[in-house]
Design a protein that fits this description.
26% strand; 90 residues; three-stranded antiparallel sheet; alpha+beta; two-stranded antiparallel ribbon
């Protein structure tokens, strides 16, 4: 039996400046959501991800997480350039 695949989750360099402006709570929640996304890859579903309305690419989703006592949603960052999930090469 093969171990489950893991997915590479990376932040685009253009996102670094925005990430640095987030509170520590938001940064922690985003990194935790990215860690779950790393395990689930494209099989991730609600409540972690949801569909985008009128995406520039087919089958694009938004990453959702709770932080700072509200639901924070990062759109566009699952699109290039942004949060990209790709299979990790072994």
């Amino acid at each position: 039996m093969h171990p489950p695949a893991t997915w590479q989750v990376s932040f685009h360099n253009d996102f670094d400046a925005a990430f640095d402006t987030f509170t520590a709570d938001v940064q922690d929640a985003l990194l935790a959501a990215a860690a779950v996304l790393r395990q689930l890859g494209p099989a991730a579903d609600r409540p972690l991800v949801g569909p985008l309305n009128h995406p520039s690419q087919p089958d694009m989703k938004e990453l959702r997480f709770k932080a700072d006592t509200c639901v924070s949603t990062l759109r566009r960052y699952l699109q290039s350039p942004g949060l990209a999930a790709r299979p990790k090469k072994r």
